[in-house]
Design brief:
This protein is of the alpha+beta class and 91 residues long. It contains 3 helices and 4 strands. The relative contact order is 0.19.
């Protein structure tokens, strides 16, 4: 899967691709949000969920966004932000 192909995928298609084919690296869960980081073919894929609650039912996760970025030095900023989130959730 190359950059051009990943750019053509919708949010749902990118999330489905990550869930089926990529390796899960990390998950950060907060009360109202959850982020997952995946890796495949020199690309990171980030999937974000938001908490969705219907009155009288338990909260569920709803897909909010899915993004990808290449595994190269230009992506250092994205990974730093993600790793800080992981550290914050562990502290």
């Amino acid at each position: 899967m190359n950059e051009y192909t990943l750019n053509r995928l919708s949010t749902y298609q990118l999330a489905e691709f990550a869930l089926r084919s990529a390796t899960l690296l990390a998950t950060v869960t907060r009360p109202t949000a959850k982020m997952e980081l995946y890796y495949i073919n020199r690309h990171f894929i980030e999937i974000c969920y938001s908490s969705y609650k219907v009155p009288g039912q338990p909260a569920q996760w709803r897909l909010y966004s899915a993004n990808h970025f290449p595994d190269d030095p230009s992506s250092t900023e994205y990974l730093t932000i993600y790793l800080q989130q992981i550290k914050l959730s562990v502290d």
